[in-house]
Fold this sequence. Notes:
Layout: E1 6-9, H1 14-23, E2 27-30, H2 40-50, E3 54-57, H3 71-92, E4 96-101, H4 124-139, E5 143-148, E6 151-152, H5 159-167, E7 172-176, E8 180-181, E9 184-185, H6 186-200, E10 209-212, E11 219-220, H7 221-234, E12 241-245, H8 265-271, H9 278-295
Parallel strand pairs: 1-2, 1-3, 3-4, 4-5, 5-10, 6-9, 7-12
Antiparallel strand pairs: 8-11
Helix pairs in contact: 1-6, 2-3, 3-4, 5-7, 5-9, 7-9
Amino acid sequence: xxxxxxxxxxxxxxxxxxxxxxxxxxxxxxxxxxxxxxxxxxxxxxxxxxxxxxxxxxxxxxxxxxxxxxxxxxxxxxxxxxxxxxxxxxxxxxxxxxxxxxxxxxxxxxxxxxxxxxxxxxxxxxxxxxxxxxxxxxxxxxxxxxxxxxxxxxxxxxxxxxxxxxxxxxxxxxxxxxxxxxxxxxxxxxxxxxxxxxxxxxxxxxxxxxxxxxxxxxxxxxxxxxxxxxxxxxxxxxxxxxxxxxxxxxxxxxxxxxxxxxxxxxxxxxxxxxxxxxxxxxxxxxxxxxxxxxxx
Length: 296
């Protein structure tokens, strides 16, 4: 195997872009047309071409609401594709990190979710991600399922970009106040994933299974919006007043867990990995996004 080479499936998503940004020459991020989760042969070909020491699957169908109207596409990318990737990795003995989501839970727990807690998705996206976890685990024992949550960054579409864009055109925004989670800066997440990928490449590694990885600290979405605007104000960016609303009064196509908090204890114990406070990520991402929004 090529020493140190990590192959990332995915190129345009937040995590894939973050991995490419910090990974250097030892990280290769590939998406369509070079590789396609819907085309099993392309997965085999890219593994044979690059012979990585580990694979991170950062691809998939991530549009939570759109999954309700496009369940077949979501299943193809979140279940069938990961199954084919795990099978291809298994045949070549290449360890796999597969990213999943807090949406595999129903959000009714009163504490942060541990990796071994009972899953109960309440939306199509969550169900396809859970089925994808099971598909990966069924094909290959040398895998990590890494559930992530509330990702934001300077890259792609995310809650922080949306809030800043709204504030650029209006004085007030309504944001749900009863959804609680652990915001996760994609760059910090990417750094931790690369650390974990290097660790699982060790032939003696044997702590395979499911892990949680999210930013340190928790908040609700309305409070997160206020913090975004506070950071934006310090950089001379757009701000808006935030009106709290309940999820029940703000219906979306897909239901989301009210409690999306993830317990990272096992990840810290096994890998020695923790992520910084989510506020640190905002301080990095918001000024960059402001410049993009102003230029637009």
